[in-house]
Every structure is written in structure tokens, then in C-alpha cells.
Design goal:
two-stranded antiparallel sheet; 2 strands; 2 domains; mainly alpha; 17 helices; about 80% helix; about 550 residues
């Protein structure tokens, strides 16, 4: 039997090793294709070797974004069983690539969010290229490490830390815009707290208006259309503001009645969302009138499943449109510096560079995304369609609120914070303590009986003229009290164990928070070390 067990373990290990090798092989093939294409396209340009190496770093960074960051968009849908893992990967890969290629940034700041002052490079193109290469590689290495430890972290913060560290190594601490870094540090708190509060608020509202009602079916007919229409409004507004801002000028050229602004305003986006939200409301009302709703939690959950699937697709599209710049922004800066021989504050991203980012994200997601998808969807807290719906809705609304208030936020921190929020709400609602109350009542009853038996035993033992029945009763009482003491002890152990049962895994919570806090400094230190290595080799 033991030999059979060992044999099974060996087979499983060989299979796992084979899969890991296959994943690595596919990733290396993608990087090899990127190298060949880049060299064929720019091989005759001076310093093209730097661009080829930088493209490798950019492809590596893009794959790590896919492996780590995309989990936040589809994790709740997978955890709630609204989507299978395979289905989620396919949807996310397609919509991430579509978002990057269709609505990705056509122009990006070479230095993300004004982290450093490019004037401090004094026009030294080589130093600038080395700094950007260092930033890319450092951010990618940190993301790879975080993914290995199953910690969802912010890719934006990773590249920000990389740019900051490389900039300091290249030109000193004065190169950094510290006010901007302060805002980024503030987002560590703002993002998860906002996401958690909004997600918990919607979950509490759904529980109060639907789940906790005796007639859940009647409550669902009234409230589900409202919640789904709110989600529609939020996502259309979110997608218009974040996913279409890079192609808004082209849209207004076709639809001339729209305001001719550089990007959609909140008012226009909100009106789009309101129109579609109202339409969805009436569609849902008509749908629920025709259907017989099962008066159970599972019966209600099914009406939140389809919106959750749509949210996973739309979040992926918006993520691809915005966060692809984390991989290709520095690469575009390097490309521009190599091809033009100068340093520009802004540079157009060539389509081939954007394609590397889009394909890299999708490939990284398909190869290594499941690890983080399972963590986000299953391991932080248990997710069902209603909770997943609240997490996705919180992600969209938080970004909208933050954008209007000018608050810096991280999509990763928002999504994970929202999951923490629904988990902590479940604890606050005393879902665990219902069982604890029962155990405490059992302990109370047992202690009352024990006290009564002990008093009776004490009276009998003090009795001077004991009869045969008295002695029998004393023996019975001793046995009963001993048994009751054991029972009370056992109940207290159970209660102590139950008190430790939480709906949010505390070890994972601490690990993720720690990873968030150290992302910028770790990426910065790595980037500085890599910069000095490159500089040492080149000089």
C-alpha cells in the first residue's frame, strides 16, 4: 500500500513538473518571437540591442501582469462558480487583449504618473534607457515573486517603484516627485478601504432587502432589477471613462452630437450608464415576472450570475486598456529614445509595442493566472454569486468615486479590499456566533446541573446517618459530576476552536497587506541594483 502511495505521488510530481516545463517553454517561445521580430524591425538602428533587451523585459513584465493582476477581475466569478477557471481565462484573455489593442493608450507619459523629473537626466539618453530597462525588469521580477507567493499586488505600484528606484540610482533623490509618491502611499489605504466599505454596503443591503426576507422570491422580483440596473449604470460609466478615453476623439468624430472633448466627462459617461441601466431594469422586471423564482438562497443567487460574468469581461477590457501601459509605457519610452536619439516626456506607443503588451498579458494569464485566480476567488473568503456581484460592483463604483475626487487608487487593492469587506461583513453579522450561542447555552445548562449535583453531593457527604441508597446516590453523583465536568471542558474547547473560525483567512490577510506595503520599496531597491549592474557592465 505504501509503495502504491509513493508511486502515485511520484507520478503526480512528474506530471506537475511536465506541466511547469511546458508553461516555461511557451513563455520562452513568446519571448523568442518578440526578440526575432524586434531585431528584424529595428536591427539596423544604432543601440538597437538595448531596444531588443528592453522588449524582452517588456514581454516578461506583460506576462507577469497577466499572471498576477488579472486575477482581480475574474477571481470573484470563478470563486462563486459563475465561471469555470477555463472559461474565465478565455474571457479575460480575449477582453484584456481587446482592451489593450482597441482602447489602449495611444500616447502615454514615459514616466508613469510623473514619478521622476526627466530633466535630471541632462539629456543623457544612455542613462535614461538603462534606468527604464532597470525599472521594467525590477517590476517584473517583483510581480513574479509575488505571484509565486500567491500575493495579488498592484502592477502600477510595481512599475512606479521601479521607475523611482532607477531614477534615484541614476540622478539622486532630488529626481523624485515626492508629493506624487505620497499620493501613491495614500492609495494603499484609500483603495482597499473604499472597495471594502462599498462591497460590504451592497452585500448588507442585498441581505436586508432579499436574503433575510421570509418570502425571498417576492423580494427578489422587487429588488434584483434595481441592483442589476445599478451595476449596469456603474459599469457603463466606468467603461466609458476608463476604457474609451483613449479613443474618445475618434468616437466624437463619428457621433458628432457628443461633446468634443479629449476624453469623456463624468456627466456624459453617467448619462450613457443611466440610459442602459433603465433599459436593463425594465428587461429584468419583465424577465422575473415570467419566471418562477425558487425561494432559497441558491434560487436568488442565479440572478446575480450573468451580471457577474459580464462584469468579469468588462473589468478585463478596462484593465487591458489602462494597465497595459505598465508594461509598454517604459518600453515605448526606450523605443522612442533609441529611434529618435532623445528623451521625450511623452511618446506614441507603436502598434507592435502595444501588441507585445496585449499578447503578453493574455499569455501570462493563461499560463500562470490560475494560481492567483484561485487565491482571490477561493482562499481569502468564500464567494458566492451575490458576494461576487458586490465585489465587482464595488470595483467599478470605487474607481468612479475616486476619479471624481481625484484620489489615487489601485484596481488590485480595490478588488481585494472588496473581498475582505464582504468577508468581514459576514463575521460582523455573527454568522459564526450563531453556533457559538448554541454551545454557550449548552455550557450554561451543564454548569447549572453540575452545581445542583455538587450541592446534593455535599449534603449527602455531610449526612451522618447514611443509608445504603445514600451511598449509591453518592457514587452516582460523583460519576455524573465527573462526566459533566468532562462535557463542559469539551464544550469549552469546541467554543475556543469556533472563536478562531473566521470568514477571512487572517494569515492570508496579513501576507497580502505586507506585500502591498513593500511593493514600492522592494521594486525600487531591485531597480537601483539592476541599474548599477547595467551601468557597471557598460562603463
Amino acid at each position: 500500500m505504501e509503495l502504491q502511495t509513493v508511486s502515485k505521488i511520484e507520478k503526480k510530481a512528474r506530471k506537475s513538473a511536465g506541466i511547469d516545463l511546458m508553461r516555461l517553454g511557451i513563455a520562452l517561445i513568446f519571448i523568442a518571437v518578440v526578440v526575432i521580430y524586434t531585431y528584424a524591425k529595428t536591427g539596423s538602428v544604432p543601440n538597437s540591442l538595448f531596444l531588443v533587451i528592453a522588449t524582452v523585459f517588456g514581454a516578461y513584465m506583460a506576462m507577469n501582469i497577466g499572471a498576477n493582476d488579472v486575477a482581480n477581475n475574474v477571481g470573484p466569478a470563478v470563486g462563486s462558480r459563475a465561471l469555470s477557471l477555463t472559461g474565465a481565462i478565455i474571457i479575460a484573455a480575449v477582453f484584456e487583449a481587446a482592451g489593450a489593442l482597441i482602447a489602449g493608450a495611444d500616447v502615454t507619459n514615459t514616466i508613469r504618473k510623473g514619478i521622476i523629473d526627466i530633466a535630471a537626466f541632462n539629456g543623457d539618453v544612455n542613462i535614461f534607457i538603462w534606468a527604464m530597462m532597470s525599472a521594467l525588469l525590477a517590476a517584473a521580477l517583483w510581480l513574479n515573486l509575488a505571484t509565486a507567493f500567491k500575493a495579488p499586488v498592484s502592477t502600477t505600484h510595481s512599475i512606479v517603484g521601479g521607475v523611482m528606484g532607477a531614477g534615484i540610482a541614476a540622478a539622486g533623490f532630488s529626481i523624485v516627485h515626492w508629493a506624487t509618491m505620497g499620493k501613491i502611499a495614500a492609495s494603499w489605504v484609500i483603495s482597499p478601504v473604499l472597495g471594502g466599505i462599498i462591497a460590504a454596503g451592497f452585500l448588507y443591503a442585498i441581505k436586508k432587502t432579499v436574503v433575510f426576507k421570509e418570502d425571498m422570491a417576492a423580494a427578489a422580483r422587487k429588488w434584483v432589477p434595481i441592483y442589476v440596473s445599478i451595476m449596469t449604470w456603474a459599469f457603463v460609466t466606468y467603461l466609458t471613462m476608463k476604457g474609451l478615453k483613449h479613443v474618445w476623439v475618434n468616437i466624437t468624430d463619428v457621433l458628432s452630437f457628443l461633446p468634443h472633448t479629449k476624453k469623456p466627462t463624468f456627466g456624459v459617461a453617467a448619462i450613457f450608464g443611466l440610459i442602459l441601466g433603465v433599459a436593463v431594469y425594465f428587461i429584468m422586471v419583465a424577465k422575473l415576472k415570467k419566471e418562477q423564482i425558487i425561494n432559497t438562497r441558491e434560487g436568488i443567487n442565479r440572478y446575480f450570475t450573468v451580471p457577474l460574468i459580464f462584469s468579469a469581461a468588462l473589468l478585463s477590457f478596462a484593465h487591458g486598456a489602462n494597465d497595459v501601459a505598465n508594461a509598454v509605457g517604459p518600453l515605448a519610452a526606450i523605443s522612442d529614445a533609441v529611434l529618435s536619439g532623445g528623451i521625450a516626456s511623452k511618446s506614441a506607443i507603436p502598434f507592435w509595442v502595444m501588441a507585445i503588451g496585449a499578447l503578453g498579458i493574455s499569455i501570462g494569464l493563461a499560463l500562470y493566472g490560475p494560481r492567483l485566480i484561485k487565491t482571490v476567488g477561493d482562499e481569502i473568503t468564500k464567494i458566492d454569486p451575490i458576494r461576487g456581484f458586490c465585489v465587482a460592483l464595488a470595483a467599478a463604483i470605487t474607481v468612479i468615486i475616486a476619479s471624481q475626487l481625484g484620489l489615487p487608487v489601485s484596481s488590485t487593492h480595490i478588488a481585494v479590499g472588496a473581498i475582505f469587506g464582504v468577508g468581514f461583513l459576514r463575521e460582523w453579522l455573527h454568522l459564526v456566533e450563531q453556533k457559538e450561542d448554541e454551545i454557550e447555552k449548552e455550557i450554561e445548562e451543564a454548569e447549572k446541573r453540575l452545581k445542583a449535583y455538587e450541592l446534593e453531593l455535599e449534603d449527602l457527604q455531610q449526612k451522618t446517618d447514611k443509608s445504603k441508597e445514600d451511598y449509591k446516590r453518592i457514587v452516582e453523583l460523583i460519576e455524573v459530576t465527573e462526566e459533566l465536568e468532562k462535557t463542559i471542558k469539551r464544550f469549552k474547547k469546541i467554543l475556543k476552536k469556533e472563536e478562531k473560525v473566521k470568514y477571512v483567512k487572517r494569515d492570508l490577510f496579513k501576507k497580502i497587506i505586507a506585500a502591498w506595503i513593500i511593493t514600492v520599496p522592494v521594486a525600487a531597491v531591485l531597480a537601483a541594483m539592476i541599474f548599477f549592474m547595467i551601468k557597471g557592465m557598460m562603463l
